[in-house]
Amino acid sequence: MSDATYNNPSPQFGTAEYIGKPGNNHCQFCHQPIAGAYYRVHESMSCPACAEKVRAELAKDTHAAYTRALLFGIGAAIVGMILYATFEIVTGWIIGYVSLAVGWMVGMAMKKGSGGVGGRRYQITAALLTYAAVSLAAVPIWIHYAIEHRQAHVQQEQTKSQLAAEQRQLENESKQQNQNTAAPAPEPTAPAPQAPQRSRLEAIGHLALLGIASPFLEVWEGGPTVGWMIGIVILFVGIRIAWRLTAGVRVQVYGPFDDARSRPAKIETCPP
Hints:
Layout: H1 3-7, E1 15-17, E2 38-41, E3 44-46, H2 48-57, H3 63-91, H4 98-114, H5 120-136, H6 138-174, H7 200-222, H8 226-245, E4 253-257, E5 266-268
Antiparallel strand pairs: 1-5, 2-3, 2-4
């Protein structure tokens, strides 16, 4: 057995070539000498006890595992959305590199929640959660700037009202000399029609749809730009990170083998 294999007992996903007799080699998991039968966990030599332990601890894809992964992933997506929005609001920088952190957070959270289980549905879920977290971060950013704009507008209106009041006061002072002249009674005015207000749920739903489409709104309004294309590439790299972290890991145990004649010379394995 080569020194590289001995010093790196972690499973290798590739081509495993088994040559020679194990002799006095040690189990690469418990580091105890192997006498008699032995097993292979991919390229790693294992004693029967450790091989059985690996079989028993292989993570199984169950409904409970996926539910936990989904809950953990949603939590990480919410935290990632807050992180993304807070970074842009505080710094004022529109930078897409936070998408990489969001993808990592979602992928690691789902992996933690499932106990290491992965697979296609975990990957799809992680990709969707990463995209949703990054795109919906636009909603709190819009709300923040809308509040700032409204406060500036209110201050401007207050200034206009104060100037108008001063102007009216000047006009009243100039008309004090004509107080004996009866002023015509003002005609009653009909109240202005009010626009129907949308419900809160409709407003939230509208904002959510705009948020989901936010990565592509810039293209819709003004066409693609270099900054937009860079942001989209970074977003998809973040999605790719989440995709790879939630991929299933195939662990295969071969054996038992008694000597060089009873074990295969070459076994082809493929990554999931």
